[in-house]
Amino acid sequence: MKTILYPPGETWPTLCRRPVSDTSSLTASVNDIIYRVRAEGDKALREFTLKFDKIAAAGLKVSEREIESAVSLVPDDLRKAIILAAENIEKFHRSQLIKEEPVITSAGVTCMRKNVPLEKVGLYIPGGSAPLFSTVLMLAIPAKIAGCEKVILCTPPGKDGKINPVILYSARLSGITEIYMVGGAQAIAAMAYGTETIPRVDKIFGPGNQFVTRAKEIVQSSGVAIDLPAGPSEVLVIADSSADPSFVAADLLSQAEHGPDSQVVLATDNEKTLRSVKDEIKSQLDKLPRKDIAAKSMNNSLFLLFNNLQDCVSFSNEYAPEHLVINTSEPWTVAGQVKNTGSVFVGRYSCESAGDYASGTNHTLPTNGYARSYSGVSTDSFIKKITFQEISSEGIRNIGPAIQVMAEAEGLEAHKNAVSIRLKSIDNV
Amino acid sequence: MKTILYPPGETWPTLCRRPVSDTSSLTASVNDIIYRVRAEGDKALREFTLKFDKIAAAGLKVSEREIESAVSLVPDDLRKAIILAAENIEKFHRSQLIKEEPVITSAGVTCMRKNVPLEKVGLYIPGGSAPLFSTVLMLAIPAKIAGCEKVILCTPPGKDGKINPVILYSARLSGITEIYMVGGAQAIAAMAYGTETIPRVDKIFGPGNQFVTRAKEIVQSSGVAIDLPAGPSEVLVIADSSADPSFVAADLLSQAEHGPDSQVVLATDNEKTLRSVKDEIKSQLDKLPRKDIAAKSMNNSLFLLFNNLQDCVSFSNEYAPEHLVINTSEPWTVAGQVKNTGSVFVGRYSCESAGDYASGTNHTLPTNGYARSYSGVSTDSFIKKITFQEISSEGIRNIGPAIQVMAEAEGLEAHKNAVSIRLKSIDNV
Fold it and tell me: Do B123 and B140 have their domain in common?
């Protein structure tokens, strides 16, 4: 824990710096995986699954029967919890699907934007110690709401050679029926270029390890869109003297347990709060099953004391955290000044883990300072907004002369001619 | 002109392929420019401007006096045309600024999204033969509507060592007062990392040559967002027997004159239309000042005859053109089936050049098949949508148990604890 009292403004850029993870050393091996998948398709996928997951996968596509039978393997209380979360995610993401009205810009000139779903999207869900079924909901539900025709999901097999049933259940609940048992950079390559079994998609979503992240970056430059640039998870908590230190400590630790590279920041205007939160962390940390991970991450955490809440939020805006928890007596006053973050948790009961699972907001958010320029995943992420314009003969009469003058001034005579030829035909009628 | 009658479906992917422009050979020199600008700031900018633009620029920032005096240098009719275009662009882009209502997902759980402008954006306007003042409007007006605090513009000097007055005038009209005379990869590097004079921005917009494009790709991977991946401009025209061949020819040629690598495609269900359009092109081409460029681009153009309009639009959806002109007797029937494109021009009088300048839609659009997954620039491009959630004690009672169960199932005990500690405190009250 690095504690800094009243950091002067000129030190903020340094405090905001995230650890640089250089993945360039991975590039050669990831490129090799991508190359092999493009060249050999399913054969390469089977070989990489054997090599990395130690599983001789007979077939890549998960059978409908297997998906169906997963339902009964999910405990009742977990199933109910997932259904509640799915309903909230659905409500909030459905509200984002907004139809826009046409706009008449000049008489006879009508412009509009139409929401058109991406045709084919691919979701990646990593394997590893914890089955991230919540991310299935966060990606599959907006895809369904947007109306994507094809939504596929790739996830690696567990040690038992199977996909965790909670992932299968969450996928089925969210309307996904096409699930492929393949992970890592090879899964990204398969979705980017297609194989005999796995279809090529237009956009790839989802978290992953360094290989997956690097693969997403590489395929992005060859025409496949990706959700967001990736980075370790982050939380910044703004707390004043009204905050319960045990709540603040719990929120910081819930971020810290994600991984040793998680970024945890407390910004407060009260020195006593700062000290109490640190004490609380020590006592809560010991009881956590993932305390080794959380402790490592807490080593790099920042505990910052500022003169006032205004400075706290100014610092937060410069830091641009993925998650921002505002635990102050008048949280909306602070919230109103927020400029750069992924998602904001307003008030004492709004813990960050609520947004991770069940409040309804999306948990796929910009990290690493990208919140300055990127939004988190939303229904918009699965939609293109195509513009349309219809110009009548009256319309081209109204704006045609302006187009002619401007095209000529840009030296584009053929652009002008496309108008002239139409105006002439109208005059001749 | 490549004419293909009834291309079978299996040939479509090949027909949809764009020429691959390999810019990897530029990488070393672009990286060198970026490195020098990061290390030496303004000094490097002055050196590169001397080297590439042959101008010994005394200062980089354009003075207010110079911007003001540009007004009188713009001819009256051009000024009026620009004002009309700006008004239409403003109307349409202002309609895109939609405030969303809060959503109560569970009792006591309120979620909302708020539009927050990007703080600092940088616009790049290339120099070259034609001054692209229309692009100034297309980028600066949405930035102003979004409410960006700082909007800067970089553009190289002309041969006379000055910036074209129409660019200065368009910038001033759109509310930009911070203009820097610097072009190329060095301008992109300056906006990405900042120099003594030029501020660092959060997102970079605008077209450019291969150096600029490569520089945008490189800086994107280090935390600066960019508008869109770049590629040569494209149009696909769907025409039936009702279309005036001279209109269609004019639209195809207006695309062709952009550059020798422009992509021009006609899809029709009528062989006579196909032949007439080709004849028209020959006769119109000869009169164009940029006929050499247009002729080169026409060499690679595709003239495709299909069995019916349904096939035309299916092909277009696979091609995913930047611009789609629908010149048929019932254009909205065709328009309703459009899935992948940047902007659609509906009906005989809706020429593509209208969207380039004055209809109100944006002309910064996805090329190279990116229309499958990207939208064009809009007011959204200058906005982040930050999510907020407020959870009351009732709210955490309602969704808390679900969060606890899900967090435990994902092996994230500290996430669970952030809820447990709150529920316990409520019970104790």
Answer: yes
A389-402: b (≥16 Cβ within 10 Å) or e? bbbbbebbbbbbbb
Taking CB atoms and an 8 Å limit, are B257 and A371 in contact across chains? no
Complex ipTM, two decimals?
A: 0.96
| Domain endpoint, select from B226, B247, B280 | B226
Alpha helices by DSSP H, listed for A97-209, are 133-146, 165-173, 184-193
The two structure tokens encoding residue B1: 């002109």
pLDDT tens-digit map of A4-32: 999 999 999 999 999 877 777 899 999 99
Q: Smallest Cβ distance to A425: which of B244, B413, B426? A: B244
pTM beyond 0.80, yes or no: yes
Half-sphere exposure of B406 (CA within 13 A, CB side): 30
- DSSP class of residue A381 equals G
Q: How many CB atoms lie within 10 A of CB B199?
A: 14
Please check whether residues B192 and B236 belong to one and the same domain: no
In what side-by-side order are the strands of the sheet with A203-205? A178-181, A150-155, A120-124, A203-205, A225-226
B186 and B298 together in one domain: no
* A218 lies in the same domain as A250: no
Identify whether A322 is a catalytic site residue.
yes
One domain, residues B255 and B131: no
Asked if A257 and A209 sit in the same domain, the reply is no
Does B8 fall in a domain?
A: no
Contact B291, B252 (CB under 8 A): no
Write down which residue in B204, B226, B248 finishes a domain: B226
* pLDDT tens-digit readout, A211-247: 999 999 999 888 899 999 888 999 999 999 999 999 9
Note whether residue A8 is domain-resident: no
Q: Is A373 on the interface with B (CB under 8 A)?
A: yes
Is B322 annotated in the active site?
yes
Distance to chain A for B305, nearest Cα, Å: 23
- Cα B59 to Cα B62: distance, rounded to the nearest angstrom: 8
Count structural domains, chain B.
3
Structure tokens at A278: 């640190």
**Residue B387 lies inside a defined structural domain of this protein:** no
Does residue B380 contact residue B96 with C-beta atoms inside 8 Å? yes
Min distance A212 CA to chain B CA atoms (Å): 16
Provide the sign of the torsion angle of the four alpha carbons A361, A366, A367, A369, taken in this order.
negative
Q: Find the length of chain A.
A: 429
> Which element (helix H / strand E) includes B78?
helix B76-94
Is B258 found in the same domain as B369?
yes
Note whether B303 and B323 are within 8 A (CB).
no
A383-387, B213-217, B303-307: least confidently modelled range: B213-217
Range of the domain at B411: 392-427
In a domain, A381, yes or no: no
Give the C-alpha separation, B265 to A3, whole Å: 63
Q: What CATH number does residue A290 fall under? A: 3.40.50.1980
B95 CB neighbours in chain A (<8 A) are 100-101, 103
Are B251 and B128 in a shared domain? no
Task: Give me the residues of A, 130-149, that contact B with CB < 8 A.
Answer: 130-134
